[in-house]
Write a structure and sequence with these properties.
Distance between the termini: 69 Å
Helix content: 25-40%
Number of helices: 7
Largest sheet: 6 strands, mixed
Shape: rod-shaped
CATH architecture of the largest domain: Beta Barrel
CATH class of the largest domain: Mainly Beta
Strand content: 25-35%
Structural class: alpha+beta
């Protein structure tokens, strides 16, 4: 290995020594900190979106779909069996009171009437004969030509003949009724909604031939889930709206609630009696019904996106609009909806809560408001209306979009 050495003359070495302190001074001077550099950079202002706290009444509004039906629907049927020979009405026809809607073959019933009438005639003949016998015996008994016992037997025969006449007349009336039952007569005005037999069929007594929706009252029929059915009060008011024309409306009250659930849908049928329904709400029309249930409690509503947790309890970030700073506040929650939260206490109506960017905030952090969102809907049905009423910003540029993404 070779060693390389640098040999300097004594004069040169003496010339270098004064440069060492100067170099050290320059190096130490360069290490001194600038006082301006000690000031920390300002914390960036966080852009957030907020929503206003809204006060709402208790309960909720439920919207269900149903149909219009007649308040009274009856099945017209024959009281006797026989062969159906004619049916004068079809589905959709209007029926008048007393109108004949169907007929059975009357031959058998007519024969029974003829036989009963003949029996009446025979009984009347026997009665006349017995009465004539009494008329002949009456003077002869007084003269002693006829025994009293024989006269009494004649009176008994007359009484028996009279009873036979009454029995025959009763059978004749029954036969007449059976003959009249071969004609099916509507007992009230209404509309035919169904038919159960065709001409030529043999129908039994009581078998439905025509179903009639009586003219007059109408019901809106809905299938209520158990939770809503249990919350219904007596005579609960329901607003009924036509599904094809929202301008057609009617108001009714709960008239009948089925005590048994449908075995398939597990819902309960509820009939709502309509007060003075418009003519356009025809039978079979599809309608929607709005009913308010609950109502015992009231509270404040905020968007569900504003909810966070602090110390294991529900909380929200509240913005002070004067100083543009946030504070974390615990709240008491009454219930949750699809996109909103009902608050019992902890907030004041009109306060602003952060709805976007809640995960990165800290107390007393300064923020910049990107905009106030529309009030949170109190019920799921109110959400579309709130979205339609919110003004649309058609001039949002790329910078605002970036700030919104940063808030989220």
């Amino acid at each position: 290995m070779y060693q390389v050495g640098l040999s300097l003359s004594p004069g040169v070495r003496r010339g270098l020594f004064p440069l060492v302190p100067l170099t050290a001074a320059l190096l130490l001077g360069g290490c001194e900190l600038d006082p301006a550099a000690e000031v920390a950079a300002p914390e960036p202002i966080r852009p957030v979106r907020v929503a206003e706290v809204v006060e709402v009444g208790g309960g909720e509004t439920i919207t269900l779909t149903g149909t219009i039906e007649a308040e009274d629907t009856i099945n017209l049927a024959f009281r006797v069996g026989g062969q159906l020979i004619s049916r004068a009405v079809n589905v959709g026809d209007q029926v008048r009171p007393g109108q004949i809607v169907a007929r059975l073959d009357p031959e058998t019933a007519q024969n029974a009437v003829d036989a009963a009438r003949a029996n009446v005639a025979a009984a009347m003949a026997r009665l006349v004969e017995a009465q004539n016998t009494i008329d002949r015996y009456q003077p002869m008994v007084e003269r002693g030509f006829v025994a009293r016992q024989q006269f009494d037997r004649a009176v008994e025969s007359r009484n028996a003949a009279r009873a036979q006449v009454e029995a025959a007349e009763a059978k004749l009336r029954t036969a007449d009724n059976q003959l009249s039952f071969t004609e099916l007569v509507a007992d009230a005005a209404g509309t035919v909604t169904a038919r159960g037999a065709e001409p030529g069929e043999v129908v039994a007594a009581g078998q439905m031939v025509v179903q009639l929706a009586r003219k007059g009252g109408r019901d809106a029929v809905f299938d209520f889930p158990p939770r809503v059915k249990d919350a219904l009060a007596a005579d609960t008011e329901v607003e009924v709206i036509s599904a094809t024309d929202p301008g057609v409306r009617a108001v009714g009250r709960v008239r009948e609630v089925s005590p048994q659930a449908d075995p398939v849908t597990r819902t309960f049928q509820v009939r709502v009696g309509l007060a003075s329904p418009p003519a356009t709400l025809r039978l079979g029309s599809t309608v929607t019904g709005k009913v308010a249930v609950g109502g015992a409690e009231a509270g404040l509503v905020i968007p569900a996106a504003a909810l966070t947790r602090a110390d294991g309890q529900p909380a929200v970030w509240v913005v002070d609009p004067d100083v543009q700073r946030v504070a974390l506040r615990n709240i008491a929650v009454l219930g949750h909806e699809l996109d909103s939260v009902l608050v019992e206490h902890g907030l004041v109506p009109g306060e602003l809560v952060v709805t976007a960017g809640v995960q990165t905030l800290r107390p007393e952090q300064q923020v910049r408001l990107l905009g106030v969102a529309p009030p949170a809907p109190a019920t799921p049905e109110a959400a579309p209306a709130a979205a339609e009423d919110a003004p649309a910003d058609e001039t949002t540029d790329a910078a605002d979009t970036a700030e919104d993404e940063a808030a989220q």
